[in-house]
# Entry
Amino acid sequence: MSFFSRFMKFTSSDMAIDLGTANTVVYVRDRGVVLNEPSVVAIETIKGEKRVRAVGNDAKMMMGKTPDTIQAIRPLRDGVIADIDVAEQMIKHFIHKVHGGKARPWRFPEIVICVPSGSTSVERRAIRDAASNAGASQVWLIEEPMAAAIGAGMPVTEPIGSMVVDIGGGTTEVAVLSLRGLAYTTSVRVGGDKMDESIVSFVRRNHNLLIGESTAERIKKEVGTARVPADGEGRTIHVKGRDLVNGVPKEIAITQAQIAEALSEPVGSIVEGVRMALENTAPELAADIVDQGIVMTGGGALLDGLDDVLREETGLPVIVAEDPLTCVALGTGRALEDDAFRGVLQSA
Ligand code: ADP
Ligand code: MG
# Structure
């Protein structure tokens, strides 16, 4: 590579964007992950006119605490784009934030965006247009399971079957890959959000206490587990919410064993998705998976004991990727940087 072209590459701000249902992660060529924020937009309506009040971290902090005039929206919540205008504003906001106040780039950047595999062609076109409108010279798309597998260092370009289970906020994607392609893929509408909802309804049913989704998410991250602890009840956490009987705020104690019970349904659905994928995998590829194991990515892979449950239920080796929350962005970044992966990019 000549000095000039190296210089051009270095100064360019080519980007890889993991547009997740819960978090958006941006990777910049030769710099790595530079932004990781919730996929949330707070919209304020004043006299019938809507405007963006906050995006990302600032908007997530408002969730469940907004007055009537402000709405905190997750435009990709269930893996499909619920609100394309808001999604577009969010994509543009993050691209501009990464550019910072810096001088104009030498050339307009190339952007690779990782999309949920359940997204329709209309949605894909809308995502591409949003990135183009934000200044991209060329926009490529990559399927999420492919990006996850590349990020986890699986041999996706070889004739070897790899299974990846990406557990995000809105969906769990299970895929078998080989020779740069998806041999099988399924998207289950169960992920971290369903886990949070299950905790909310468990606490309501068993303790007559109403808690918000942010509180449920915190409980899940702190003491959540996919299996009942060996020592019986496990750790205890104190939870605040509103008493459903007399309407006043109160605090209760719940145990890890109770959380495991609350999470058994979403965990069961994830296991079911993996079973289905295994049943639908060609025997030669299945044989490779026996050797290589199943790789878990996405924030949901961090749920304590989920890897053990999958191991017990499938009898296969199960590995949690090194950094599950940024694995997809890393894979998208590598697809941008390394020509060996050009074949997995789609021009939308
Ligand atoms: P997406 O790709 O859909 O944006 P992510 O891969 O960023 O999703 O994962 C987000 C989900 O992971 C959220 O539901 C979040 O609550 C969950 N999560 C993050 N950390 C943990 C943890 N330590 N234990 C369990 N779940 C977690
Ligand atoms: Mg994801």
